[in-house]
Amino acid sequence: SRPNAEVVRTHSTTVGCMRWLDRRACLVPLALHRTGPPLAFVERLNPRTTRRVVVHRTTTTMRVCAQQQQTGPPDDTTAPPPMVVLGVTGGIAMGKSSVVRHLREAFGAAVHDADAAVHRLYGPGGAAVAPVAAAFGDAVLSKDDDVVSPQDDDDTTRSCIDRASLARALQAAGDRAAAFAKLEAIVHPLVSRDRDDFLAEARRNGEWLAVVDIPLLYETIPDVRAAGIDYVATVTCGAAEQRRRALCRPGMTAEKLDAIMGRQLEDADRQARSDFVVDTSHDDLAASKAQVAAIVETLYERHVRADGRGGVAQSAAAAAASHGVVRVVSLDLDDTVWPAGPPLLRARQKSEELLPQLMPRTAEALDGADPYKGFFGPGAAAGSSSEQLLAHDITARRRQRLRSLAAQHGDSLEAADQVLEGIVEERSRATEDHVLDAALDLVEALKARHHNGSTTTRSRIRVGALTNGNAARGGRLGAAVDFWITAADVGAQKPRLAAFLAVAAQAGLDASGLRHVVHVGDSVTDDVLGALEAGARAVLVPRPRVAPDTAAAADTASWVSTPVPSVDTSLLADVDPDRWAAVASLSEIPAVIDRWEQAGARATPREDDDDGEAVDAAAA
To answer: I need a surface site. Which of 19, 93, 157, 225 has the fewest CB within 10 A?
Structure first.
């Protein structure tokens, strides 16, 4: 372990990287890098960082955990981090679109879609229209009557490529391979230029993660690194599942599918060349989201955290300078803004009501036994790799359990899904009856505040929910907050980094923006340590822990009046006290934020607001 060291990790099975939370080895999984053929890659460490690497190996998993300690002064955390470019590729019907959608929606990635670029190039006035028509004849042209030309007698800007006519021209060519090669020679350079323009714009906008969605990535880009693509993720699902999905598409035939696949690289070759592999063959989309979240965490650790941004070990001076302005506050839900017991009790009662009605064979076989016994709780998801990929999503795991019982006892899968829908709806409705008035008051008070002393709409503090639970957005709290993020939305639970990156993305912050986030919750590990390790600040609101069969578990007033036991904060002993706070009630949080902003104003005399105007930070 030394500065500039190179760590070589060889992947023979599923590899899980573990990121450190504190010096007491409170660890959580970071990334499932890949399965399949062995792959070795080299990670160069930050020159100012000493990292101790400990390898834990079992028969199926090698876990790499690292402790990181700064050995030099912190970098300028206000400068934008270098942008990382992730290429996403995969064969037809492999699930690539769902992976890219999750990167965009959950983590705010800037996405360039090669197929969409081709549509633009083929559209009215597109750069490909004239050369393609010259190569294949005017028969491939059509006119878009919705486009109005500046001159009535000029149809140039209305001409576009009719994709169906172009496909017929390609199929009718005497030498199909030559015809496709001619088309690709025209289109691929134009797509490449469009992609370069997109990436340049993303850099100017300060994006930390850009995704280029390229179905034929390896087929059209011989050297991906030279093309500015830092990493490649291949999306796969297996040959049989791929064929089943593809043939379900409208207009797809076996002959057409074979022709498409004949022009694509073998899936095994794509996987062997890639840095990451996302397997979408699982029954639930939650498994794909978990894999994507792990990839995002890995990229952030390498390209943003390596620059010294955030983390528990950040110095007090750097924390004060970089965390002064609070732009976003995220709130844990269960046992923070409402007691978890009453909604969960209502959900259990709804399950007991619906099972005999919709899954009578299962209910008879269970004979009153708990259908979820042993399925939830610590270690319950430590089974197969598929089960581990669902560990973050309570709804997906409950769906898996109910469907398994239905199949085992002869009930329909549709009935199992109806039971689940009823449970989740009841659990979500119950939260409205038990949300604390203090939580609603806090949201209102925070949304009335502005950072940087400004009063513009853009300067208003954004307030939202970040929960490991599955309560759907609704009721008074749902209407009041700006965003609502569940672990299912992210693909990971707190204290994972991905959960807090999702907060930054939903709030429109860049990769360095986590320093402007304050997270509020009741758990030292999930909420406080998770937020601190991500680079945010945290407020701990200790809550009573009550047994499910007590009055406090069913009644909010009883829960609120239950004495709170002393909270073990020894895990925070080495953390700068100006980066976290403990409060007895939610009403104290605005005063905590005031204190932090004032400390930041003293450390940083001036800071730019969202509109680019320098303002006196002391006014914050």
So the answer is: 225
